[in-house]
Design a protein that fits this description.
Blueprint: H1 6-39, H2 75-78, H3 87-94, H4 98-101, H5 115-125
The protein binds heme C (HEC).
Length: 129
C-alpha cells in the first residue's frame, strides 16, 4: 500500500466527509419540499411577502412569531412575543394540533406525527431564505 502524505490523507478524508454529508441534507430538504406541498402549501407560500390563508414562510427559521407587518395574525399568536421559530420550536408546534400548541390560533392544522416527515420538513424550511 502506498503511503499518502498526512496532509493529503486529511484532505481526502475531509472531502469524503463533505461528499457524504451533502447529499443527505439535500435529500432531506427535497423530501421536505414534498411534505410542505402536501401539508402546508394550501395555506402557506414560501415567497417573500406572499401571504395566503396563513403568513408567508419565507425566512421562517429564526424569525420571531407573528412579526410579518402585512399579515393579520390572531391575538393568540400575537401574544406569543417570546416565541422564536427555531427548529426545536417548529418541531413541537407542528407535531401537535395547532389549537393545542397555541390555543386561540387561527391555524387549523392537526399536526404532523411522522418523525421523518417532520425532520425533512424542518430541513426544508431552513432553506427558505
Ligand atoms: C388550513 C391552513 C393551514 C395549514 C394547512 C397550515 N397552516 Fe400554518 N398557519 C395558518 C394560519 C391561518 C396561521 C396564522 C395563525 C395565527 O395568526 O394564529 C399560520 C401560522 C403559521 C406559523 C407562524 C408564522 C409566524 O409568522 O409567526 C408557522 C410557523 C406555520 N403556520 C407553519 C406551518 C407549517 C410548516 C405547516 C405545514 C406542516 C402549516 N403551517 C400548515 C394556516 C395553516
Amino acid at each position: 500500500m502506498t503511503k499518502l502524505p498526512l496532509g493529503l490523507s486529511a484532505a481526502v478524508l475531509v472531502f469524503g466527509w463533505v461528499l457524504a454529508a451533502l447529499p443527505v441534507h439535500a435529500a432531506e430538504a427535497a423530501a421536505g419540499s414534498d411534505v410542505f406541498k402536501s401539508e402546508c402549501a394550501e395555506c402557506h407560500s414560501i415567497r417573500e411577502g406572499r401571504n395566503k390563508k396563513g403568513p408567508s414562510l419565507f425566512g421562517i427559521v429564526g424569525r420571531k412569531a407573528a412579526t410579518l407587518p402585512d399579515y393579520s395574525y390572531s391575538d393568540a399568536l400575537r401574544g406569543r412575543n417570546d416565541w422564536v421559530w427555531t427548529p426545536e420550536k417548529l418541531r413541537s408546534y407542528l407535531s401537535q394540533p395547532a389549537r393545542q400548541a397555541d390555543p386561540g390560533t387561527k391555524m387549523k392544522y392537526d399536526g404532523l406525527t411522522d418523525a421523518k416527515d417532520l425532520d425533512d420538513l424542518i430541513s426544508y424550511l431552513g432553506t427558505l431564505h
